[in-house]
Amino acid sequence: MKLLEGKTAIITGASRGIGRGVALVFAQYGANVAFTYSSSVDAANELEKELNSQGIKAKGFQSNAANFDESQQLAADVLDQFGSIDILINNAGITKDNLLMRMGEEDFDKVIEINLKSVFNMTKAVQKTMLKQRKGSIINMSSVVGVKGNAGQTNYAASKAGIIGFSKSVALELGSRNIRSNVIAPGFIETEMTAKLDDKKVAEWRSAIPLKRGGSPEDIANACVFLASDLSAYVTGQTLNVDGGMLT
Ligand code: NAP
User: Fold this and answer.
1) 130 alpha carbon – ligand 1 mean position (Å)
2) How far apart are CA 141 and CA 127, in angstroms?
3) Domain harbouring 18, CATH code
4) pLDDT of 113-158, one tens digit each?
5) What is the model's pLDDT at position 197?
């Protein structure tokens, strides 16, 4: 029996990067995968095909995680089409970096809405189903930046630190119903989000990481498998740094 067999996972923001990596690894472990994206229709269709070819049930949904009503609709559709919601991975996220001096109100609000409010939206949307099932694992994607802060990312850091407080509170509220809530704080993971960064800066970062490399989406996906599966049945309210030792 595969580790995630028979479980249904919702993964937000899986058309690219870390989310895509998590979806592919979850399929290998036997999970059924409902994933979302914002605008990458072709990439999402391709991923849906690839996942279905692995013998699990998979479907991509174009759904804005920052929108409360769309999140409610998504959870209802997934429950209807998949029959259960066992795992929620709040992964969708964006950056709009700037020094505080130059950051506009719109760029602050947008990052908070997509990165943090989305976690509220989706957790609310699956809560009833998980309560009824008396089980569930919620995994929220924070960042090393949410733990430590970063110049030029006040909006992003605030959203990612907010996720940690939210997640711990959910762990306390829902623990008695066997619903677990944990955070993963990735370090520097090489995806499109980080491909935007300056090459010299990236080389400096790599050499400052104790494991001397950037992480891959699979590195994050493997940590998600642990937190999603019954292997972590007694783990809740935690933040797992998956960062090559960056915060050590
Ligand atoms: P990415 O490559 O930029 O992919 C972002 C994903 O989120 C895409 O699938 C995108 O869909 C989706 N998305 C964006 N806005 C959305 C919305 N409003 N509703 C639904 N989906 C939305 O990012 P990534 O590097 O994989 O990062 C994934 C998560 O890990 C983020 O929360 C990020 O903050 C966190 N993280 C990343 C790193 C890193 O080094 N990469 C480090 C720490 C934390 P479309 O393709 O349709 O736009």
Assistant:
1) 25
2) 18
3) 3.40.50.720
4) 999 999 999 999 999 999 999 999 999 999 999 999 999 999 999 9
5) 86
pLDDT on residue 64 = 98
Q: Is the CB of 92 under 6 A from ligand 1?
A: yes
241 ligand 1 Cβ < 6 A:
no
246 belongs to a structural domain: no
Overall residue count recorded for the chain in this entry: 248
Q: How far apart are CA 154 and CA 227, in angstroms?
A: 28
Using 50 as the pLDDT threshold, list the residues of the chain that sit under it. Answer: none
**Pairing mode of beta strands 87-90, 8-11:** parallel
Model pTM?
0.98
- Domain of 224 in residue numbering reads as 8-240
Distance CA 26, CA 5 (A): 9
Distance of alpha carbon 239 from alpha carbon 168, whole angstroms: 9
Residue 100, CA distances (Å) to 97, 140, 151, 157 in order: 9, 26, 9, 12
Residue of 41, 71, 94 best suited for mutating to test ligand 1, as the one with most atoms within 8 Å of CB: 94
> Does the Cβ of 197 fall within 6 Å of ligand 1?
no
For the chain, report the end-to-end CA distance as a whole number of angstroms.
36
